[in-house]
Prior knowledge:
Elements: E1 6-8, E2 33-34, E3 39-46, E4 51-52, E5 57-67, E6 72-73, E7 78-79, E8 84-85, E9 90-91, E10 96-97, E11 102-103, E12 108-109, E13 114-115, E14 120-121, E15 125-129, E16 132-137, H1 141-159, H2 169-199
Parallel strand pairs: 2-4, 3-5, 4-6, 5-7, 5-8, 6-9, 7-10, 8-11, 9-12, 10-13, 11-14, 12-15
Antiparallel strand pairs: 1-3, 15-16
Amino acid sequence: MHPTSTPCSMPPSEVPNKTGEVAADGAPSGAAFVHPSAAIHGDVQLGRGSSVWVSAVIRAEIHAVDIGPYANVQDFVMMHVGVRIGANCLICINATGMDGCRIGANCVIGAGAVLIEGTEVPDNAVVVGGPAKVAARRDNFVANRLNAFAYHHNAFGYGRGDHRAWASAAYARAEAAECERLEVMGRRSADLIEAGARAT
């Protein structure tokens, strides 16, 4: 279980802090969001800032399902027992993860992808198809974290009944600031990797 995970059991209305709690600076506090139409059953762990959207189904009757921090499980996704989703992942519309799948951090699981039982997806992978295959490997941290930021804000908008949070000037400013912050983080990470390579 991720250290920032919150146990979740249905109905979605019982998910802690899903209704738009904000920090003192006006940013979302980090609580997970579950859309009221999502069906979550069994031992499901939702990481800080994760979101589960319209008509997604997560079943964990036997083995826990663990959704990492800032992961985004979009509309009509089906996740079955024992699935583990890493931090900052984007699980696109209508994707399916069967028993025991492991999805690394910063991954994009394409729309309609079918991960068969026991599929292992490495960090920073783009996965498509049925059965799903890794189509590309790249550092998706900045893009996925920005996506997670967008859905995190959208989740809190939904919690307040605001289904157009992305259309606000305040969101545009927040997104630009987050993009700049993530790009700086990405450059620092690349510099550290390069420095480490030169030192060896």
